[in-house]
Amino acid sequence: MKVATPAELIGASTALTMLVWETNAVMSMRVLGMMGLWSVTPSENARMFSEKPPAFAKSAAAGMSAAVSGKRPDEVAMAMIKPLRAKTRSNSARLAKKGPSFPKLK
Prior knowledge:
Structural class: mainly alpha
């Protein structure tokens, strides 16, 4: 097995960091949406629960496939992160476009 280079390890670390940041952004915008401070669709609450099982199943399958085929730990991690990042990236971009929703004062 080829040893991972520092650049490959940094790449895996960066991908995981981006996953964390995007997840934080999505969660923040959704919570603000629940409070009426961010524009979200009425189906957003249901969406946040229904999208998780398929995303995690895809991530687990990709990671298991990489591990069984003898990939290095950083490659297994990247295989697992990639499907999750696709979802967090699209959610973050979609929610960010909607923007804040300021309450109307009487």
